[in-house]
């Protein structure tokens, strides 16, 4: 049933070994320790970390010592997705009120009770549509809360909604389960106003492949985080799915990154997503 996400990880054995003893409590405390570490600028507060940890920032090899985690950030907002099936977490971190604003997305993957793979996407002033104040404003208004058990979508349905959205960038015939309402938060830009008529099917580019997708899925909140290569650009797309339909989309796009060595060519997106709206 979860074949696709396992294959996408390319690390089947450690995940299968860890899945059985991976609880929400464990994932929650690890993800909370990430927030504590980032707040203090002290990577040693992140626990537990595997000796063989593979750590990347913007899809390039990095170290804790010279990385973002060594910089204390005032965290104004954080939200976790906990994936007990893959033993993985996704955390959205917004620092809007500190001296230097940041919005981060972090995927952590665990094996044998410790994080063995960690990917951090870092957006800051100058990145596409970046505005941490606006991001904080919209992100704190949205409801990403627990969905009652009887109304939850399956992991497959949640992932399919995310994949449909990602696929339509290169194939306009794909049917995307748009929710009504639905809103996209990209950098600091919001496609809606928080009202019942918010729409997500506006200004989707064409001719660009969103590939190398790595998922973290939390069916208790209908959330799926997808780290992907947006025509070679490190990118995070996160979705909230309700009743099989897209409700919220959050993106982080690291235009300034040098790429991840898995680029899909030099094609440029032809839609609005690469062009900030006029003031
Ligand atoms: C960022 O967003 C805030 C809140 O929406 C707005 O007041 C501010 O002017 C924006 N900053 C820039 C640089 O666009």
Automatic annotation (TrEMBL):
Q: Which residues form the signal peptide?
A: 1-19
Key words of the record: Signal
Bias category Basic residues: which stretches?
Answer: 264-279
* InterPro entries with a match to the protein in the record: DUF8021
Give residue ranges for domain DUF8021: 151-253
Q: Does the keyword Lyase apply?
A: no
Q: Where is this region: Disordered?
A: 258-279
Task: Specify whether Acetylation is a keyword of the entry.
Answer: no
Q: What is this protein called?
A: DUF8021 domain-containing protein
């Amino acid at each position: 049933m979860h074949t696709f996400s396992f294959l996408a990880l390319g690390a089947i054995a450690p995940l299968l070994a860890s899945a059985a003893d991976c609880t929400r409590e464990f994932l929650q405390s690890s993800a909370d320790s990430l927030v504590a570490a980032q707040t203090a600028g002290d990577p040693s507060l992140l626990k537990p970390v595997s000796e063989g940890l593979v750590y990347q920032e913007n899809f390039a090899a990095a170290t804790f010592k010279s990385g973002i985690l060594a910089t204390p950030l005032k965290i104004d907002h954080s939200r976790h997705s906990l994936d007990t099936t893959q033993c993985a977490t996704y955390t959205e971190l917004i620092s809007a009120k500190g001296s230097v604003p940041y919005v981060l997305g972090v995927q952590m993957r665990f094996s044998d009770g410790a994080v063995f793979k960690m990917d951090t996407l870092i957006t800051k002033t100058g990145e596409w549509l970046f505005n941490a104040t606006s991001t904080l404003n919209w992100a704190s208004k949205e409801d990403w809360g627990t969905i009652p058990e009887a109304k939850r979508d399956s992991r497959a349905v949640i992932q399919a909604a995310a994949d449909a959205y990602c696929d339509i960038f290169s194939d306009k015939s794909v049917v995307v389960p748009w929710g009504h309402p639905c809103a996209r938060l990209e950098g600091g830009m919001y496609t809606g106003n928080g009202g019942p008529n918010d729409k997500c099917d506006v200004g989707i580019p064409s001719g660009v492949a969103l590939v190398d997708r790595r998922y973290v899925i939390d069916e208790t909140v209908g959330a799926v985080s997808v780290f992907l290569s947006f025509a070679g650009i490190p990118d995070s797309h996160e979705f909230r799915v309700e009743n099989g339909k897209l409700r919220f989309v959050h993106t982080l796009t690291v235009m300034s990154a040098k790429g991840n060595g898995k680029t899909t060519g030099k094609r440029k997106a032809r839609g609005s997503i690469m062009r900030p709206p006029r003031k």
